[in-house]
Amino acid sequence: MVQVERGRVYRLYLNDPERRNPLSPAMVEGLLKALDEAEEDPEAKAVVLTGKGQAFSAGADLAFLERVTEMGAEENYRHSLSLMRLFHRLYTFPKPTVAAVNGPAVAGGAGLATACDLVVMEEGAKLGYTEVKIGFVAALVSVILVRAVGEKVAKDLLLTGRLLEAKEAKALGLVNRLSPPGKALEVAVALAEEVAQNAPSSLRLTKELLLALPGMGLEDGFRLAALANAWVRETGDLKEGIRAFFEKRKPRF
């Protein structure tokens, strides 16, 4: 269900194109396994996530939807926990992540894209948190969406369940780059390569700071930032970066 291309930039493909890449249990487990592998691989500096075929991800597995109201509380909770682990894992992943939205990203599929650090979206693609239209709640996605766009915009998107065109998604801050049709993966890989040239320890610490700061008060935030500022000065990456700067060459991270 998940195809992996290894390298400096890991490419993870949601690979169920005939069903528009739904978040089936197999897809969720495949993504978690692939992310574990990418974290452990010292050559992997960034991850790009995209969909095979004409869609990024249409969200829920239709086979699951047909029986969801007949499942017991324990089974429903287990399913919710597996999705929670995936969104949390992707959102807190220590290496930079880029979503290449090559087609519709709907419901849980929109959540996957939102959980990535950066998003590239093709002109002509659509994105939406459509759960309310069939009686679901975009509960897990709301945790990260409100961080991304703020309460008022999140209310608009979650309460209407409307689909966004690429340009509006970018204007709202959900998307970082637009691409021509058929070029989302190419643009996303180039963006990931650009990010991957930077110091790994700096990237990791920056992500940790951005995760922690929204929940902290001003004084605590500044104290944490000061600690990070001091800690990074002891890393080999900074020593190499300073050396490269004075030697007028690219650093070798």
Describe this structure in words.
This protein is of the alpha/beta class. Helices cover 51% and strands 14% of the residues. The strands form two sheets. A six-stranded mixed sheet has the order 1-2-3-4-6-9, sandwiched between helices. A three-stranded mixed sheet has the order 5-7-8. The chain is globular and about 65 Å long. It starts with a strand and ends in a 7-residue tail after the last helix. The relative contact order is 0.12. Pfam families: ECH_1. Belongs to the enoyl-CoA hydratase/isomerase family. This is Enoyl-CoA hydratase/isomerase.
Secondary-structure map:
Blueprint: E1 2-5, E2 9-14, H1 25-40, E3 46-51, H2 62-67, H3 73-91, E4 97-101, E5 105-106, H4 108-115, E6 118-122, E7 126-128, H5 139-149, H6 151-160, E8 164-165, H7 166-171, E9 177-179, H8 184-196, H9 200-212, H10 218-232, H11 236-246
Parallel strand pairs: 2-3, 3-4, 4-6, 5-7, 6-9
Antiparallel strand pairs: 1-2, 7-8
Helix pairs in contact: 1-3, 3-4, 4-5, 5-6, 9-10
User: What is the CATH superfamily classification of the largest domain?
Assistant: 2-enoyl-CoA Hydratase, Chain A, domain 1
- How would a textbook summarize the main sheet? 6 strands, mixed
Which parts are unreliable, with pLDDT below 50 for 5 consecutive residues or more? Answer: none
Report the CATH topology name of the largest domain.
2-enoyl-CoA Hydratase, Chain A, domain 1
Strand content: 5-15%
N- to C-terminal distance: 33 Å
Category by helix and strand content: alpha/beta
Tally the helices.
Answer: 11
Strand order of the largest sheet: 1-2-3-4-6-9
Overall 3D shape: globular
Task: Give the ordered list of helices and strands.
Answer: EEHEHHEEHEEHHEHEHHHH
Secondary structure tally: strands: 9
Number of domains: 2
Q: Percent of residues in helical segments?
A: 40-55%
**Corresponding CATH architecture of the largest domain:** Alpha-Beta Complex
Mean pLDDT value: 95
State the CATH class of the largest domain.
Alpha Beta
- Rg result: 19 Å
